[in-house]
Amino acid sequence: MCNRLQHLQNLKNVFLKSVESVQPHNLLSSANNYNLVPRPLGDGKKLCIQLQGKCVDISDKRCHAVGFGKAVLGMAVQLEAALGDALQQGILSIPKGSRHQFQHHKNMCLKTDTVFKVYEGAENNQPDDIALQAAMDIKNLAKTLTKNDILFVLISGGGSALLPLPKEPLKLTEKMQLIKSLSNKGASIQEMNQVRIALSSIKGGQLAAAASQASAVISFVISDIVGDPVDLIASGPTWVAASRQTTPQEILEKYKLWNDLPQHIKMVIHKGDTNENQQLLNNTIYVVGDNRVATSMAVSEAINCNYNPFIASTTMQGDVGALVEAYCDFLKAIYEFQNGVIEEFELSKRFPFDSRIFQHFLKTLLMCQKTKKPLLLITAGEPTVKVTGTGLGGRNQQLALLLSLEFHRHELLRNVCFLSAGTDGIDGPTTAAGALACSEVVDDFLKQNSNDYKALQSFVDNNDSFNFYKQLNGGDYHVITGHTGTNVMDMHLFLLL
Question: Taking the alpha carbons of 352, 356, 359, 365 in that order, is the dihedral positive or negative?
Fold first, then answer.
């Protein structure tokens, strides 16, 4: 058991190092080809900054910055330090408590005489009046800009909740309730953000449109959505998407919400559907970081732990229940292959990821057999969970709890250790980032609760994974980080001992 505890701690350390790699100061840096310090250009009369090898002339320009999301505080610190006096003003909308939490982290602290006006709201990732005021100020600033101005827009996950500006006559509470209903029914982040855009007067490219008279609108994005769709991250305030295959109405019909909507909300959605896309010639967007950076760091840390790592996917989606089934079937197939029960062809049929990488996976698996080192299977993405109970939890804790049950039920999976956690440090409306899973989780619960398996199942059925882990072994199986200051979706780490 002591050895098992060390492996679980190793998984936590791999996760924490991965999160560190996607901190804003590591992403918005010269090492990542973002040179934000103004430098003389040509004859020295012009100043420019370098963005992915492209020179941006900021000579005689007034620079402004706005930001919204869980990772924008650190980006603002980098921008402020680099631009110096060239930065005239800024507005940030960040999660409540961010500055206090990071007050001792120099890479997350603005100058004492900062030009940024900072709003802290959207507690538990829910839009509120503070975030609403921030959104109004941000749009009003954008409207005032001229050809002598450059607007930097800092965007990250959580930006949707921190930039709420409903179209009239829609109320913020109405919008929140509709998005919550979608979430509880298992809608994907893409679907929810598409509906958010239809209800908003700032998202879906409308912020960039408000700044259409500026010399340039430059967005720095840290992606928290599978595939890095810049039109959907924080609901795409600086990107107008082309027409989609599905409409907001079709999404709401899919989840049986459309018919019960008040008429004024239906009218807002229909009006949004008829808006013509604007061509924003002054608009440039850079994705400065995503979960591929984090998973690459996980590989490096896994090697340091004496594991053989393999990145199986960075695009995991779907309901956690279906994910549990797919994961467990594949884990069993790995052990059956290692034990000679199935051949390579059968293993390939049960490989649930991109078939083009199967041969690479097979080489890693054979390396595990040769070196006698455990396999660390790395996946990342953003699953969903259908909420049917009244408990407290999030998709990562729910996934960990469900997998713990499966690991305990199937003897073949008794030696699997698992971590599931959100890189933003927040899993659902809880203080946890996620949780660990292994068969001992179930053993420890049954020991503490007189072998009451029915009580354990009630936590699952009630979506009460947070309280399950909180009460178990003093929270040892919880992954708790607090707000991390970044956000590139969730990470799943499987260690096969």
Answer: negative
pTM for this one?
A: 0.90
Buried b vs exposed e over 302-335: b needs ≥16 C-beta within 10 Å? beebebbbbbbbbebbeebeebbeebbebbbbbb
Joined tokens for residue 188:
């994907």
| End-to-end Cα spacing for the chain | 13
Quote the pLDDT of residue 125: 84
Which tens digit of pLDDT belongs to each residue from 175-205? 999 999 998 999 988 898 889 899 999 999 9
3-state secondary structure 434-497: EEEECHHHHHHHHHHCCCCHHHHHHHHHCCCHHHHHHHCHHHCCEECCCCCCCCCCEEEEEEEC
pLDDT at 2 over 80: no
For the record, the structure tokens of 305 come out as 């732990």
Residues contacting 250, CB < 8 A, separation 6+: none
Task: Locate all alpha helices (DSSP H) within 85-201, ordered by sequence.
Answer: 98-101, 129-144, 159-162, 172-184, 189-199
Encoding tokens for residue 223? 């992606």
Residue 476 — φ and ψ, nearest 5°?
A: -60, -30
Whether the CB-CB separation of 167 and 84 falls below 8 Å is answered with no
Helix (H, G, I), strand (E, B) or coil at 197: helix
